[in-house]
# Entry
Amino acid sequence: MILHIHLHHSASESFLVSSALIFAALLYLRGWFGVRRQGHGKVEGWRAGSFVLGLLFIWIATDSPLAALDHEMLTAHMVQHLLLMTLAPPLIWFGMPRKPLAHGLFKRFAQEIGRPFGSEPMQQFASMLTHPAFCWFAAAGTLVVWHVPAVFMLGLRSPMWHGAEQASFLAAGLLFWLPVVRPLQKSWNWPESSILLYLFLATLPCDILSGFLVFCDRVVYPVFLSSSQSFGLSALEDQQCAGALMWTCVTVVYLIAGTVFTARLLSPHRSPQRSEELAISQFDSQRIAVRHTDPHRMEAV
# Structure
């Protein structure tokens, strides 16, 4: 039985998604130009390009013609997941969005939305949320749960759950890459070298799932049996292609990340400016402190 359900966005939903991504890009670029114009620290051009490219990948996964193929080909569905979880999140974190976005927002509005996050309970919650163990399990759990056949079919049948699936992949990807890229300077209670183990362990659930899809002799998701053969692939060949794509992409990306991280750890000349560039929260807090300090204390400083 062919599944005749439109899962891609309606015209209004498509407009909202595209508008939100365009607004985020313009807001970031406004702040980026403001930071460079006012001389409040250096934000390299490649970081702005990285952030915008990450937003572009999100658009491709959720609102481009690729999104219309996700209920016809498992390979297209897998490309969406890889864009949302493996490629877009590190690009966004490399863009260091907080400083440019803070300058891109109106000053009073930025202060209002930032005030609740300075409370002690929110700080404790953020510390738990950004702990590497939580980030790892969030990413692994999201990957495994959404590929259980029953849950996978739920995402295909319901536009609401399909949107929740895509949002959870993006959120899990952002959490997973946070300890790796570390866009915010903070104290870590674990050695930096453990990030290599973190990346290695992250490949295991991906390898198991992709290996199962590649070597399984039956179609795991029967919904694709009723789809017409796209690009000359049968349902089983499409499944094998999706598994191989996941296996290759995740392995290459994690290998590159591990290689770069190892080279940085072994480098005899680790630049102290990196910590300064990534210390976004400290930079903003110091500016606020200076503004609220009386003139005599400012002179003393």
